[in-house]
Amino acid sequence: MSWQHEDLVVRAVDYALSLGAKYAEARYHKVARSGVAARNGEFVGLEKGFKEGVAVRVLVDGALGFSSTDTLTWEGVKTAVD
């Protein structure tokens, strides 16, 4: 995890708590994926890549809320918290 991602998750928790959450957690995740496609016994394509994002979980008024985003900017993470 880079310092930019660490900053996003720390800011997300601080922001959620400032809005009144009794508990907040945020996680950055990055997953590698790959795939091969064939049609009628013939190779069609190969796919490789990464999927990453931030997930936020909060406790507000006794209810648990969850949201996530793959927009790794403060605006994207803030929207997930809101």
Automatic annotation (TrEMBL):
Pfam families to which the protein is assigned, alphabetical: PmbA_TldD_1st
Coiled-coil region(s): none
Positions of the Metalloprotease TldD/E N-terminal domain: 24-82
UniProt-listed GO biological process terms: proteolysis
The organism's place on the tree of life at top rank: Archaea
Bilayer-crossing regions: none
Gene3D superfamilies per record: PmbA/TldD superfamily
GO cellular component, one term: cytosol
InterPro entries recorded: Metalloprtase-TldD/E_N, Peptidase_U62_metallo, TldD/PmbA_N, TldD/PmbA_sf
GO molecular function: metallopeptidase activity
Keywords: Hydrolase, Metalloprotease, Protease
PANTHER family: UNCHARACTERIZED PROTEIN TLDD AND PMBA, ZINC-DEPENDENT PROTEASE, TLDD_PMBA FAMILY
Protein name, entry field: TldD/PmbA family protein
